[in-house]
Amino acid sequence: MSTLTFWKPGTAGPGSTHDRETEEEGNVVQSAPSHGFLSIQAQRERLPIWQHRQKLLHCIEKYGVTIVVGQTGSGKTTQLPQYLLESGWASEGNIIACTQPRRVAATSVAIRVATEVGTLLGDEVGYTIRFEDVSDKERTRICYMTDGMLFRETLIDPLLSRYNVIMIDEAHERSLYTDLLLGILKKIRRKRPSLRLIVSSATLDAKAFLEYFTSGTHPDDATIVSLEGRMFPVEVAYLQESAPDYVRKAVEVAWSINLQHGAGDILIFLTGREEIERCLEELTELLPTLPRGATQIIPLALHAGLSTEEQLRVFNVAERGTRKVIAATNIAEASVTIDGVKFVVDSGFVKIRTYNPTTFLASLSTVPVSKASAIQRTGRAGRTSPGICYRLYPESAFASLPTSTPPEITRTDMTTPILQLKSLGIDDLMKFEWVSAPPAESILRALEGLFAAGMIGDNGLLTPIGERVAECPIEVNIARMLFTSKDFNCGEEILTIASMISIQDAFVIPDGAPGAIAELERRKFTTEEGDHLTLLNAYNAFTKYGRSSSWCKAHALNFRAMSRAVSIRSQLKKYMIRFNLPLQSCEGDAKRLRQCLVSGYWRNGARWVADGTYRSVKGNKTLYVHPTSVLFTRKPRTGWVVFHEVEETKRTQIRILSEIEPDWLLDYGHKYQHRHAAG
Ligand code: CDP
Ligand code: MG
């Protein structure tokens, strides 16, 4: 293992003003205090938020909106809803809601809080995320949910009358649905002033929220409560130059931390599942070379694709003589706190959704983190003792990072959100009180797209089909396919495809056989027509022969993901039945099926060019095929495809492709709507 050249400019980051605890590097120090021996109540009282309990309850009573700012780990998410429960805010059948931008956070926090409250999960404490409701209509008092779920609930119950208190957590992340909810909740509070709102944030930019909630309302309607955090100093080390392969570099750094430093867990920030898996694989390969007597390494992953049990493993306290090395996405940046982390290795990158309204291409791109994120990640090393953060880039690169990440609403496809806002009766989008307004271009393109797809009419109002599509818990383009399947007699198959693309990673790479076997296994399902039909085949084989984890393993399918697809399918099926959409089978007529796909993906057309890349129909952008596609090494026979989504890494890659005839883009795209509107 090469020696690492890190330059340490000295202690920095949050908490640097605190006294540094004496500790000799290199010696085995006591492992970070595990609170396992304390009673739950004692653990709760140790959290920084405990000191502020009375004040918080007082403010929530007095003010309509309480903005709570406190460092990650101070107890906002787990404790505040409990304080409210204990002081009677959930009496008379009322519910306390707490929203999270991430599914993983909603589930893991609900599990923790159910334990603290001493109830079964789904009873007094529950959670709801898309396609998964672990709550009880009568008994649940505290409900954690994704922000998207609560927003969707406003479509059914516009005043959110079930809730007494709503806590919008991790508001600093400014996720799309958090922003939309804040806008809607400001409106709701005008009609229902008794509703209490808590906006919680890990960063200090709470002023913006205060201004938002006091403008145009009573100035004394909102207040800020700051929780001073208990935080140890964290030393920051930079690389002298950026690493060409930060995953490999992260492995090297983690390895040398393990050899050079005493106890304390290591948290590595990477951008996604694939990187995390590669990082842990490379680390695992090194394990046999670990010198005798060295600290043992327990490699762990933390990302949204894991099962709940897998996620919870990161919270197990490492035994003496071992340390956890957790490779995580930015879930671990603020939403989830793992005590005992003493070393942070920060790749400096994050995957975010971006949208180009001119090309209609929404993509997941890997971009440098913001300064705010880098600092937040650094702080994760100082939760329970002083720590060190290794940034895998030079200090000069830090200086050039953007201050903060722009709110998601400014860089996302607004098609689905605008359809939902319209369904809520918010027709004048200019008058809506945005926390940050989306770019006019993005609103305009979304309206055009909705109009062309027949979701809004000439008068700018929702059409009957638009009303119904807004109710479906899936993206507009996929919902449109469900509705047009009626005309192509392929409801059964489209329903399956819609469910399969709602899950991620149906195909897995089995342990010890990277690539090859998975590829061979998948060939059994592979169809010439592309990935959508391949997914359909995999699903059908699963329900016919499989439904067991051993069968899935033998066929390189992800059992948990496949089971989720089955559950999603049965939920979407209920919508189809409610909307009178026939569940007919196309009986193997792949052509009709692909035509139906075009009715949803008509904005995602691409043309094959001789060098093996594609050009987008709109904007003529160069697109590469994602290596997981069955069309990765093959030219589509017709020369044309539609694709599900774009992923931006070093190049722009399209994922989940199907062959089409170019004429279909016109026939079943926007023209389709006019023909049907006439008929
Ligand atoms: O929301 P905030 O970041 O302020 O803190 P929190 O998520 O409520 O976490 C408070 C404490 O609970 C931290 O010390 C966490 O490590 C702990 N916790 C845990 O042990 N297991 C969980 N599943 C969630 C939180
Ligand atoms: Mg939290």
UniProtKB/TrEMBL annotation:
<dbReference type="InterPro" id="IPR011545">
    <property type="entry name" value="DEAD/DEAH_box_helicase_dom"/>
</dbReference>
<dbReference type="GO" id="GO:0003724">
    <property type="term" value="F:RNA helicase activity"/>
</dbReference>
<dbReference type="GO" id="GO:0016787">
    <property type="term" value="F:hydrolase activity"/>
</dbReference>
<dbReference type="InterPro" id="IPR007502">
    <property type="entry name" value="Helicase-assoc_dom"/>
</dbReference>
<dbReference type="InterPro" id="IPR014001">
    <property type="entry name" value="Helicase_ATP-bd"/>
</dbReference>
<dbReference type="Pfam" id="PF21010">
    <property type="entry name" value="HA2_C"/>
</dbReference>
<dbReference type="InterPro" id="IPR011709">
    <property type="entry name" value="DEAD-box_helicase_OB_fold"/>
</dbReference>
<keyword id="KW-0067">ATP-binding</keyword>
<dbReference type="Pfam" id="PF00270">
    <property type="entry name" value="DEAD"/>
</dbReference>
<dbReference type="Pfam" id="PF00271">
    <property type="entry name" value="Helicase_C"/>
</dbReference>
<comment type="similarity">
    <text>Belongs to the DEAD box helicase family. DEAH subfamily.</text>
</comment>
<dbReference type="GO" id="GO:0005524">
    <property type="term" value="F:ATP binding"/>
</dbReference>
<keyword id="KW-0547">Nucleotide-binding</keyword>
<protein>
    <recommendedName>
        <fullName>RNA helicase</fullName>
        <ecNumber>3.6.4.13</ecNumber>
    </recommendedName>
</protein>
<keyword id="KW-0347">Helicase</keyword>
<feature type="region of interest" description="Disordered">
    <location>
        <begin position="1"/>
        <end position="31"/>
    </location>
</feature>
<feature type="domain" description="Helicase ATP-binding">
    <location>
        <begin position="57"/>
        <end position="222"/>
    </location>
</feature>
<keyword id="KW-0378">Hydrolase</keyword>
<dbReference type="InterPro" id="IPR001650">
    <property type="entry name" value="Helicase_C-like"/>
</dbReference>
<feature type="domain" description="Helicase C-terminal">
    <location>
        <begin position="246"/>
        <end position="425"/>
    </location>
</feature>
<dbReference type="InterPro" id="IPR027417">
    <property type="entry name" value="P-loop_NTPase"/>
</dbReference>
<dbReference type="GO" id="GO:0003723">
    <property type="term" value="F:RNA binding"/>
</dbReference>
<dbReference type="GO" id="GO:0071013">
    <property type="term" value="C:catalytic step 2 spliceosome"/>
</dbReference>
<dbReference type="Pfam" id="PF07717">
    <property type="entry name" value="OB_NTP_bind"/>
</dbReference>
